Task: structure prediction
Amino acid sequence: MPSDPVDLLRTDAYKFSMAQAGYPLRRETFYLSFRRGGWQYQPFELEAEVRAMLPRLGDEAAAAAADFGARHGYGASDAMLRALEGELEILAVPAGTWVAPREPILTISGPSFLLSWLEPTLLRLHHGMQLATELLYGRLEAPMARVVGDAHRELVERVCAAVEHAPLEIVDESAEYRAQVDARARELVDLLGDPGRIFEVGMRAAVTEEQHAIALTALAEAGITMSSNLAQARALGLRPVGTMGHEHVQRWGADLAAFRAMRDMRIGQPSYLLDTFDTIRSGIPKAIAVMREQPHACSIRYDSGDKFAQYLYAHGEFRRAALEPVHVLEDGLTAAMTAKFEQLREFTGLPPARQLYGYGGHFVARTASNPLTRDRVAAVYKLSQSSGEPRMKFGNEAGIGKRSVPGCPVTWRRLRGQGPRSIIAQANEPVPEDYICLQTHPEARERLRLVKAEVGLTPPEPGEVPHRLSAATQSWVDALEQGRHAQI
Result:
């Protein structure tokens, strides 16, 4: 939880561009979840944590910050600023309970831009939860006590106190961390031959804002001068950059409408994210359609699924359409993957300047020795409802992969009897007699303790727990799946 006042710009740049091309005051719902990693212990009073992250507005510093964003194409409209002062409804799993993969941990409703703005900082909650889990299981390893900076140290100390664990012998590895970031940056600069083809998108991969600042300082010294972090870009003299997130496409409900909005409602080169519904059957055809409507400079971004196959297919389609977008590669990139994409670029004859690369965890998380990263639990914060209408992200991963849950999701935990241990339900659904809703029942933690439920106050047996959906949740998933097929 940040101890200093939060900067208006302390978020990813694309949060501003999506709001410029969206509905900043629309009431929406987002939820936080971990897609993998086994049972995790939740040690925080989450509502207090979230409220401490809210932006500070109305003074000269905020005005100067807003001016910086506007000069780079990420300005805040009056509606966006009003949204940042809006009220939130927060449904949170209580401190001291356990959560399983894919269960909603935190569900928040409020103005669209405010909920979106929170994402990068809010996702950092994963680290404290993972640390608390390892402490309670008694499987702490030495690297887990290595930190980057004072804020990270304070977080570790706070988690130890929350789970009544003896203080850890903490080692600050800031110098080593900075050297590792520098080495990775120079490796990629050498590989690509031009630091201007690289941008950094690792704000949510950091544990603290301080860690991200250390990483960005090292990147800048290696020649990489573009970052998604607006606040650090302003502080370090970098150029802020942002593309498009799945929430933008979900909000509009269709690829073509979302792409048109990004093209027509803001100044700046749009970037079209291809995989919200299906990269091949919807994203690429709709991107071609929007580019054909009127000539404009733009880029396309690949995300989930087999990006190598998608890349080759997209080149053929865009070449046949006589279109030349910039190709942007992100999401889990490594140096080895970059080298393969460069081989494909040369094979297709694409000029270097028309292929850019964004790196997040590769620079920011995997350069630290501490293994408790966001990727380890696949922490996500997804739009699930917009103006009362359910929304889902589908993506191109196998199985349930990166699919999100629609509506206003909450977690039901079994107290007794038979049935699934975990059900992902809706906040307004009647709770069955043998279950309790972790987010809406004020005494959920105590009830679990009294009945000695499998997931009470002691660590459950390790392992994944397949999530089950309630009748209301399943009906929305089915309806949205039908709508997806109708669109593509």
Q: What stands out?
A: Residues 174-192 form the longest helix (19 residues). DSSP finds 19 helices and 20 strands in the chain. Confidence is low (pLDDT under 50) at residues 1-5. Residues 319 and 325 are 10 Å apart (CA to CA).
